[in-house]
């Protein structure tokens, strides 16, 4: 019940960003509350002054009595103040005060300056007798002196900083007396800041970073908490402490084990696995990372991400995936400068903070989908990250100090290389991951996907059985993709449906058990009454196969997944002249593409539909020109029998799936074949697909993506594939079993293409030409 009477000198503060006021008061004396008169709106009490009463009269006496104590106290106080940095004005002033002030005022003043808990301060306030006050304060002084000595011993070189810190804080505190809770809060905060400083000093950050951090922490100490910058600086320092400057996991690389692990996790993809093993082997021998960045390019769902994860596992490293799809701001990679409100470090630094080590495997997913915007080009920022010559001093804008990324293993994935900026592409080694064949998909499903799905749904192989023919059905009739992602989803749907049946079965078992137990005369009536509405569903339930394992056959498949989504439509669509099948490459894998043509009376115009790019339109014009110039040779005529194919005739060429933009030169041969069929009235063989670029003189030029295209044709059940002769070498990459199913026709000119596309050939008629010349 003892307090300090004080005179309010000044009140400053504001309500924003949060209410924070500073009260400047001058303490007068201690008082004691005798009686509380009223509490609201503010307390009013009758008080009694406790000290500084007979200041002048008792001075001599008290000094005599307390001479020894006060002398001792004075010595300690001087010792403490002299340990501080005298060049700071506040310290020099304090030193002068020690001599000028009456001795009995010293305990109060020094208690408020040195580091004491709130509890201790209140104890000193309660100590009305001067003797008691001296006795209580001396141990606190000694404690502070010892603490300071220790600090100076451990931090010899930074002595000055510490002194200043100790000296400045008290100064701030002399003037303000906050309420108790706030004081404690601040106390806590102060402790936190000291802890933070300790962490910074003990962390193994680089010299440069340490310097920046110490500077920031010094600023932090001087800053009132209510300043927005306080939180900003603090977050920054906390991030700096958390970053793995020197923390790394130990690589445990053993090529033989890596090979086994990769084989166990992934079926097929031999080329990719081989290249990854080579890469790892070089790493093992050379022990540094200055190699190219691997970039897996292929359609979705072919296991690019999961191979990345396996690499991390074989190396015993942490794995972190950074999705780059749609990133169009370079500060996403490199962070915002700290001057922005809400600034953050970029994804690289964030990733490092998340994994907590400086040598993780970072998977840069979808590098081909980086965007560009006014906020700069993220691809350019990635250049610095990926360049082994530069990334040992990668500077994030938020950190503003260099961080060494040279230990990080970067792997990139993309669907296509076409949209990767050339400079970025230059830093990476592209490894193509093609789509899977049906056989491979079946194996992948049975070795990996089905066991994984069963586990996820809490099922066992004793409860569900999916035979290989069913898997093949799912692959051919319910999915059309290069990878296995939608196959995986369909298998998930089957497992869900089976899980319901299994759970229902269990429920029914327990129900029948209970019914047997509670069977009795008296409940019979109830049963007959209640059973009626349920009976239908009951019998229906009983009709379902209750015995395990539940076999998924074609009918079950239809029940669960609905009617088949894709049917083999090839032969149907090739039942009239003017249709041919081309092969297209898309980032999602190869696809077969029907090209349709029709002719009508008109003025010789060519109409193209199906969202075609410029290159494709040019191919169409080329094809028409070549056919027109060779019309006589092939006996191609328009509707009225003229060799001028466009005379009074309009031609319409359509590439179905009009919602998808198509471009590229590889449809040239298909357009020629389609038009040849239209003008000759003959059907193109229904099992032939083709790809190749054409020239005006009828040559067939090589095209890309042969492997994906061939796989697509194989998926669609086609048998004969016409490819440019110069693409023959690409066939080696295709699995033997696929090659065995198909016949390849190598064509170097359009004559060969047409001969192969039509049953019985599309032969040139030399005799007719001679006849024509006579005319
Ligand atoms: P991507 O990154 O190429 O789009 P993911 O790596 O996400 O594809 O693969 C999709 C799923 O397919 C994963 O669950 C993966 O385990 C599985 N998967 C793909 N290829 C294989 C394979 N060859 N062997 C086993 N599982 C595979």
From TrEMBL:
PROSITE patterns in the record: LON_N, LON_PROTEOLYTIC, LON_SER
Residue segments, region Disordered: 509-535
InterPro entries: AAA+_ATPase (IPR003593), ATPase_AAA_core (IPR003959), Lon_bac/euk-typ (IPR004815), Lon_lid (IPR054594), Lon_proteolytic (IPR008269), Lon_Prtase (IPR027065), Lon_prtase_N (IPR003111), Lon_prtase_N_sf (IPR046336)
A Gene Ontology molecular function term of the record: ATP binding
Domain Lon proteolytic residue range list: 574-760
Entry GO terms, CC: peroxisomal matrix
Gene3D superfamilies the record matches: 1.10.8.60, 1.20.5.5270, 3.30.230.10, LON domain-like, P-loop containing nucleotide triphosphate hydrolases
Main localisation: other
Residues of the active site: 666, 709
Subcellular location: Peroxisome matrix
Keywords annotated in UniProt: ATP-binding, Hydrolase, Nucleotide-binding, Peroxisome, Protease, Serine protease
EC number(s) stated in the UniProt entry for this protein: 3.4.21.-
Residues reported to bind ATP: 298-305
Keyword Protease carried by entry: yes
Domain Lon N-terminal: 1-145
The organism's place on the tree of life at top rank: Eukaryota
A family per Pfam: AAA
Record GO biological process: protein quality control for misfolded or incompletely synthesized proteins
Top-level enzyme category: hydrolase
Family: Belongs to the peptidase S16 family.
Protein name: Lon protease homolog
Species, as recorded: Antrostomus carolinensis
